[in-house]
Amino acid sequence: MTPGNRPYFEDIELGSEIGPRELVATDENVATFCRLWGNPMPNRFTDPAIAEKSGLPGPIVPGVMSMAIMSQALTDWAGPESLKDLDLVFRQPVPHNQPLLISATVTDTRQDDGENLVECDVLMTGTAGERYVGGTALIALPSKGG
Amino acid sequence: MTMELEYNRELYGVEHPAGPFEITGELIQTFNRSIGETNPVFTDGAAARAAGYADVLAPPTFCTLLVRNVELPDIDLKFGRTRFHAGQRVQARAPIVAGDRLTASSHLKEVYPKTGRSGTMVFEVWETTFRNQDGAVVADVQESYAARE
Does B91 touch chain A (CB under 8 A)? Predict the structure, then answer.
């Protein structure tokens, strides 16, 4: 591990598992996000009645915010400027106030144009195995050789 | 079987500009607060400067917030009754720090049908390129919307 407890490229193997890291999006988190995003409230992300009218079980976490949460889990692991590409599919509505488990599995490692790259399948799941968000990430890591 | 999609193909090759967006430290801090981000390079100017940045670094998906401000035209797709945000991709090209001034340019990338277990859906993909005040590309964002019968 590097001095900041971040992984080196050489520490990573095909099939290496990252996480799961547990994060929660509270009602307050989502309201803060919607204000910043400029989405007029109340809306289906903040209001139970509006969410139900849209056929949702309750207020949901916006996809843009789910992406930010997954990015956070990955940069916590690999460093603030490590994430080069995050490509996600929003599969199911993501609930507020519930544990969201973010995990990744390494599918490829390669050196390309002076960068040490790790490709992963990434997932955001619920505690009962719900697959909320899936996709791929490309992460650059430092090398022990400098 | 190929499906003949009906929509406004004249939108291909047309760029839709937006901005400028002033990326203030306050915007980055609010973004951090909304997701519970605590990495000092994103939250603390002194730590960011010690790491070699001019000011706090924006987390890598920050630009996705700004896509909402790009006025994307209706492609007039003759398919489906409901439409939802199906996916999103961010390619981070260069650091974005507090004090940067970004501009955006969006275009229709592709429209395609996909048939799966739940029937046929039509995906509409927009691509937005963000540049900073020096003209450097800092991020490419793809937004994918799906129309369903």
Answer: yes
